[in-house]
Amino acid sequence: MPPGYPKVYPKGKPRRMSLDAVADFFYFGFRNLRKQLSIAVLDMGAVAVLWLLMNYVIIRFSTGQIGYTLVPWWIFGVGVVEAAALWESFGRSFGHRVERLELRRTDGREPTLKQRVLYWLLWHVSVLPLFPLLLVPSPHERGSGLELRPFTMEGRVPRPWWRTSTGIYVAWLMGAALTAAISVTISWEDLVRLFTRAGTTAKFWRSFFSPDTSIILKTIRELVVTVFMAMTATSFAVLVAVPLSFLAARNLMRGVVGRFIYTVIRVTMSIIRSIEPVVWAIFFLVWVGAKLAPFAGVLALFVHSVSDLTKLYAERLESIDPGLIEAIAATGANRLQILRYAVIPQIVNPYISFTLYRWDINIRMATVVGMVGGGGIGQALFFYLTGNLWKQAGTVMLFIIALVWGIDYLSAKLRAKLA
Amino acid sequence: MAEPYLVVEHLTKVYERGHVVALKDVSFEVQKGEFLVIIGLSGSGKSTLLRCINRLIEPTKGRIFIDGVEITKLSPRQMRKFRRKIGMIFQHFNLIKRATVMTNVLTGRLGYNPTWRTLLGLFPRSDRELALKNLERVGLLEKAYVRADELSGGQQQRVGIARALMQQPELLLADEPVSALDPATSHSVMQYIEQMNREDGVTVLASLHFLSLARRYGTRIIALRDGELVFDGLPEEIDDRKFKEIYGEEAEEVEVR
Amino acid sequence: MARMLPAKVERGRLRRRLIALFLDWMSWGYVAYGVMYFLNDYWWRIPLERFYSTLTLPPWGWPAAVLGTLAMAVVCELTGYSLGKRALKLEPKRERPLTREELLRGRAGKPFWRTQWGVMAVLLLALTVALGWHIVKIDPEALIHPSPRAREMLSEIFPPDFRYFRVPDPAFELRGLPYSILDLMVLTIFMALLATVLGAAVALPLSFLGARNIMGFSPVGWLVYGVVRGFFNIFRSIETMLWAVVFAIWIRWGSPLAGIMALTVHTIAALGKLYSEQVEGIDPGPVEAVVAAGGSRAEVIRYAILPQVIPSFWAFTLYRWDINVRMSTVIALVGGGGIGDMLFYYKNEGKWALLGAVVITIVAVVWAMDYLSGRLRERIT
Asked: Is B231 helix (H, G, I), strand (E, B) or coil?
């Protein structure tokens, strides 16, 4: 410890049973609970995924069917828990790795076998019922004289990855996942076609050099619609996302109510974001009717953009420099003034940059949304594709590529200027 | 002796539910017009102490009086009003980087103007004139409409001083004002602060890294170590033994000219 | 050389002024387009569908429009600080030092809505909103009063029907094989996995060939760099969905391999670009150190560059994995296979309750993958 470094942790427990002591107990208890639980969940998850994948591969290759477990679910459950417990007690598990911790004796030395066995036995009464984890240190740590402490390489030589348990685990996982993935997604006939039927796409490429001139004007018209769809969706999304982003920034939303609003908005947004614009388009097409196809497309893009922009904006807000806020507050400014002079100047350019980025994405998305009937160029493309009009489809694709490339270039240029 | 201008009594600040102690029972007094320098290692609590004085950080325990007012008892609203009298400059200048020097200087008047006007960026003519006067004083009149991030470090800190001057402060808190500057620039910045102290009668509390600077500019020095007050006296009273006590056994004094 | 310099600066300024003029011209052209559009639509009552982009003008109309907008641009250029000049930061030169009074008024004396470029910008913005509103056929009425079909959908979709989560739906099959929601979801994740792994594996070596600082400045270096970068740029601007179309025709409509190939190709291009930008942005210090120690080019890559870029490579790959999972859920729309097949099947059949179950499954998986990759990326960087 460098000289002058504050002595961070005073020794000893709180002396008397006060309200503070109770609050402290729960504060540190829940921190411990969270740490231990996250390790346990990570390990159990890791074991379960590997188990399921292995079974998947075995079933796939022995019967050709799709299946997930060879054993009854309760054996599966007990097995996963027990494997995780053993892993945590006798090695440096996946969870330990992720949390950057390791199991050592309280004096910092390597645990003995006896201690590890004790740790493993007590793990069952400590981690499984959960509430003993509120005690710091937890019963299984105290009982075995071990503790989880931050991992350090100091004074040690690393093992090669194939001699660490996590390394072996990841290798197995990758092997099983790739085997399963290849066996289920790629069939022999498809592979043969991939290598023998490249010629079938020639009709596309040919139309790239001799586009169907009769549909060019119509295509440009649809392109204009697509561009405006993206533009309208983006601008309305900005109007909604900017105020929302302030409510979704952790550093601005303090207190119980603030945290509640923050959580609600963040969770809602991440759920909305998980639904692809295509799915939203399906929904809105039914909602407003197919007659207003571009409008439905805009609504789909709008909803997705709001959630995405809110997240991007809020993350930017969370990383603003607190020094400037301090400086403005020190002049006697109130909250609104701080917002105007310390927060907004820091976010204007990043916000514009994110908006451009989103606009770029929206143009790509607008073509995709069009394919489910959301209007614009995508709809035209889908029409030609389903009608086997390859030449026309190729022409439309050529235009889409040109548009996307142009917009991408433009937005990248502008963003580089803003940075 | 006259009534002291600033009184700090048993000031304590703890973080992390009492498990990190930044300040431990610090008490001292400052007379009006003094140039008090706070020294100590990084992490010894200098910044926390300064920020407790204008309550950018809420103290855990203890009382602070400024000019007879117990500021630790003020409501947030009253405190905001009170802060107008306390200028502050920072190690990393904390300017609005994308705004002009003029805008940055004018932010010193935020507390004096109605909110709606400042939100629109409308400052009264008198404030603008004052801003130009203060810019002239720190020698940056020509740069009034240059963006703040186009200036050099020393110039930026002078903008920070001009911003503090706009508040027409009685007390100036300077949090390591020259740590991010090279030695030559440091002196020019320190001289502006000294000028404020001598000519405007502003009481200055400055935390400094280098003892040589503290000796050169301070009229009195206090030293913190691990959040405790370990020295309170005149600059010349710090001898080799005291120095080791403040900075630890391995430290060597470095001259900054 | 010293005498050349001002001329060069002047030439640069001239070029920039020309670009500024061009920008002004284009913005006036846009205004003209907007005006014509609304004239067509409101005044002459010409049906909308025919006049998005093609403007019917009298024979003298086209030259008049081109020259008229150019004239407007020139006038703007000459009379003040036009939008084009603002964009290129061609500020008017100042000869004398500022007076006290000017300093006092400053820029704040002239808010942007009273400058020429400000007016133009506001005009363009308003025009865009108006055009957008019109072309897209925004109809708040339709939003507030959903169609009868929508009501039917809403009433059916809650609660979603998870009957076929584990058991295959007898009505639905792909190429003669039964699939449950879970089976198809797993298959979709596998598609994304394979595409990401393959894509990253190909993009990794390519990215070094597409990095300026690795390839050096020899003719061969330029050539390889140009080819690789060109490949990245072209293949990246062809959307995954378009690639899926190509591969669906190539292999078979609805084959997962088509989806994987589409995702892979786009992943190679996108990751390749991100990777090589990362390689170009490294700290040159360690490279110098390894070269100074007598390292070969391969050793430079191994000991000076890879350690610097590996964390961000992982972060980009995880990010791409996240995108691929999202994409693979809908790629079936254009014949790429995966759970999208089921999604669009139920949508076409109007089985909303079953569709709801599929959508919820997709959301749960995409959300979980997003969360996982986000957490992992936090860990890495």
From this structure: strand
CATH at A267: 1.10.3720.10
**Residue C168 within a domain:** no
CATH of the domain at C326: 1.10.3720.10
List of chains touching B (3+ CB pairs within 8 A): A, C
Residue C114 has pLDDT above 80, yes or no: no
Closest CA to A310 of A266, A278, A350, A349: A266
Whole-number Å distance between alpha carbons of C47 and C32: 19
Interchain contact, C97 vs B142, CB within 8 Å: yes
Q: Average pLDDT of B231-254? A: 79
Chain A residues whose beta carbon lies within 8 Å of the beta carbon of residue C53: 217, 220-221, 223-224
Query: What is the residue range of A112's domain?
Result: 15-166
Residues A99 and A233 in one domain: no
B218 touches B193 (CB < 8 A): no
Residue C67 lies in domain: 4-94+101-136
Q: What is the average pLDDT across A204-215?
A: 80
**Same domain for C132 and C177?**
no
A221/C54 touch (CB, cutoff 8 Å), yes or no: yes
Q: Are A56 and A67 in contact (CB under 8 A)?
A: yes
For residue C128, the number of C-alpha atoms closer than 13 Å in the C-beta half-sphere is 18
Closest CA in chain C for residue B102: C106
Is A289 an interface residue toward C (CB < 8 Å)? Answer: yes
Contacts of A15 in chain B (CB under 8 A): none
C193 lies in the same domain as C311: yes
A198 occurs within a structural domain: no
pTM score:
0.86
> In terms of domains, do A251 and A141 share one?
no
Q: Nearest residue on chain A to B14, judged by CA atoms? A: A8
C115 and C177 assigned to the same domain? no
Q: Are residues A80 and A155 in the same domain?
A: yes
Q: Give the pLDDT confidence of B100-143 residue by residue, as tens digits.
A: 898 999 999 998 999 888 888 888 889 988 999 999 999 888 88
For residue A266, the number of C-alpha atoms closer than 13 Å in the C-beta half-sphere is 16
Chain C residue numbers with beta carbons less than 8 Å from the beta carbon of B142 are 97
Identify each DSSP E strand in chain C by its residue range: 173-174, 177-178
Asked if C106's CB is within 8 angstroms of B145's CB, the reply is yes
Mutation choice for B interface testing from A19, A331, A335 by most B CBs within 10 A: A331
Please name the residue of chain A whose CA is at the shortest distance from the CA of residue C52.
A221
